[in-house]
Amino acid sequence: MELINTIGRRKSAIARVYMSDGKGQITVNDRDYKEYFPDKQLHYVIEQPLNLLEVKDKYDIKVNLKGGGIKGQAEALRLAITRALIKVNPENKSSLKAEGFVTRDPRVVERKKPGRPKARKRFQFSKR
């Protein structure tokens, strides 16, 4: 298998994934993913598509992550891994879609409006 390249996004986080045959090593920004993401719950989120298809020890994954927070980055990485797995074998798409991994979460932060402190918050009203 040649190198497979995909992108996943969530909020303002962007994950670029390069997947190739290997032993199941996941490297994020030149560090092991368990070191980059210290929380066990985020390890679970990242491994979800690999565990579903039972290919955790089959591919080496190299990731470039930037932007966003730690949770957004983990979910962007999950989407990128899912897209790479679909590129490897298009028959995987139905099982991944049933779990909801294929859909990109479109929710992003609402922009700040002029004359307001935040997107919807208003300054305190003073009658006199």
Structure description:
The model has no long low-confidence stretch (mean pLDDT 94). Strands 1-2-5-3-4 form a five-stranded mixed beta sheet. It is of the alpha+beta class. It contains four helices and five strands; from the N terminus they run ββββααβαα. It is elongated and about 70 Å long. The protein has a single domain, classed as Ribosomal Protein S5, domain 2.
List keywords for this structure.
alpha+beta, Ribosomal Protein S5, domain 2, five-stranded mixed beta sheet, 4 helices, 5 strands, 23% strand
Strand order of the largest sheet: 1-2-5-3-4
Output the number of helix runs.
4
Reading off the top of the CATH hierarchy, the class is best stated as Alpha Beta
Strands, total number: 5
Write the element-wise H/E pattern from the N-terminal end onward. Answer: EEEEHHEHH
Q: Which structural class do the helices and strands define? A: alpha+beta
**Radius of gyration based on Cα positions:** 18 Å
Number of structural domains: 1
The low-pLDDT segments are none
At the fold tier of CATH, the topology name is Ribosomal Protein S5, domain 2
Oligomer category: single chain
